[in-house]
Amino acid sequence: MLKAFSNPADFVVVLIQRLVDLVGPFSTFLRSAAAFVVVLGVLVFVHEFGHYLAARWRGVRVEAFSIGFGRAITSWTDRRGTVWKLSWLPLGGYVKLHGQERPQDVPDEVRAKWVPGETFHDKPVLSRAIIVAAGPIANFVLAMVAFAVLFIAIGQPVTLPVVGDVLPNSAAARAGLMVNDRIVSIGGQTIATFEDLQHIITIHPAETLSMTIKRDGADRQVAVTTDARESGGQQVGLLGVRGGAVEYRPVSVPGALWGGVRQTWLITEETFSGLAQMIGGTRGTDDLGGPLRIAQLSGQVAQLGVASLISFIAVLSVNLGLINLFPVPVLDGGHLLFYLAEALRGRPLPQRAQEYGFRAGLAFLACLFVFATWNDLTHLGLFRWVAGLIG
Q1: Which residues fall within 8 angstroms of residue 141, CB to CB, at 6 or more apart?
Q2: Class (C level, CATH) for 158-249
Q3: pTM of the entire structure?
Q4: Which residues are catalytic?
Q5: CA-CA distance, 367 to 373, in Å (whole number)?
Q6: Residue ranges per domain, the chain?
């Protein structure tokens, strides 16, 4: 309920103060807009360019290539007749393929203008699947290349086996491990990276391990009894520490290229793991964000430098590729699912089944967008501000 004010001027003063409090966070958000446009523009361009190249390869004419939606800011037509557009609403983009609509969805005068052999629906199901899958694949390639470029330029990051934080009531806390302790070896096995430490601990649940650590320049022997947790139907060990120092090590060009592939795969695994935890209820959905969260993070990461921004783009590119491969009608993965059914049946799915599928897909994406936006607004503190204004 609204607060009672004896003097209307008091209400005006409080309202102005609330608005001033709101301007600070949102001015930061507005400054993030430029970084957001750059980040999303790169991701969308690469994704759509994958569709474009595949369409050209499979002999399908591309009528339009647009970055953004709505009215075009600028446009030009190349010698192949493709209209390239930069539009006002920078929340996506599209490639318009010749004959992309289903024949039954367009009038006769439109079909009469289709050029035989160059229309999307004239192509075999394999060609259509290649064109659709090329967008997400391009996002994965972008991530691999971006990581490889970073590794060549500044070296490959390696998380050292140095304790950055000790979780309370953990095996590490009981053993007396401290921040900045470096794990030298476990059971005589040398530990070179934090990943080595994680691997050994994971395969030794509820076991006592002899650990050599370096503290204040001196080696010490510590006995650690790991905790155990069930994961994937089996017991895994837990130590209860977070990694600390990161070291950048020079790598060769082939090593950087392989590192880009490996890093992309690791992010893919982590994304699937996070989604599985959300679905299983072992992890909250607060981390699920939408465009507002991406805009905020884009501005924050851009302030850290070009390398951080490139890394951020690579991570988002992996996520965009994965999301588009989900078997949800409307997304690329949904189209691929329909094409798989067509290949198995020897003919397309009935029109009504496809329509119901697209409607369900749109409803799902709309609900997901609303939920992610709600999370974004909560994270930005909008609801706390409104509650403070009227509470």
Answers
A1: 46, 50
A2: mainly beta
A3: 0.74
A4: 48
A5: 10
A6: 24-58+123-154+304-390, 158-249
